[in-house]
Amino acid sequence: MQASALAATMTSIEKARLKLLTVVAPARLEAVLVELLQAQSVNGYTATKATGFGQHGESRAGLISAGNLRLEVLVQPNRSDAILKAIVERFPSEGVIAFTADVDAVPLSHWP
């Protein structure tokens, strides 16, 4: 498929404009984070193990620590600030970081 035909196909897809909310936190907080998200009417998430190095030092799972997790949810843009606020209020010093990014998601029918 030529580039112009591909570009025309991509622009004709109906997409939902959403926020991708990403939370990186100690894995031991997963249940509490999920509870917080459910209280904010979030009805789905993806969680994966996260390793890396940053402000809080190196994070790896080991005998003492379960490491970190990366939790991602897609939310309506008007909900993201309330969820970020709830995270900041609940975890002021737990090594939890959260951020959002604008995304286009398909299929549109999945997000009312």
Summarize it.
With 112 residues, the protein is an alpha+beta fold. It has 3 helices and 6 strands, in the order αβαββββαβ.
Overall description:
The protein has 112 residues and is α+β, with helices and mostly antiparallel strands. The chain has three helices and six strands; from the N terminus they run H-E-H-E-E-E-E-H-E. The protein has helices at residues 3-11, 30-39, 77-90, and strands at 16-26, 46-50, 52-54, 57-59, 68-75, 97-105. The strands form two sheets. The protein has a four-stranded antiparallel β-sheet, covered by helices on one side. Strand 3 and strand 4 form a beta hairpin. The mean pLDDT is 86.
Structural class: alpha+beta
The helix-strand sequence is HEHEEEEHE
Q: Describe the biggest sheet?
A: 4 strands, antiparallel
Oligomer kind: single chain
Mean of residue pLDDT values: 86
Strand order of the largest sheet: 2-5-1-6
Number of helices: 3
Topology:
Blueprint: H1 3-11, E1 16-26, H2 30-39, E2 46-50, E3 52-54, E4 57-59, E5 68-75, H3 77-90, E6 97-105
Features:
3 helices, 29% helix, two-stranded antiparallel sheet, 112 residues, globular, alpha+beta, 4-stranded antiparallel sheet
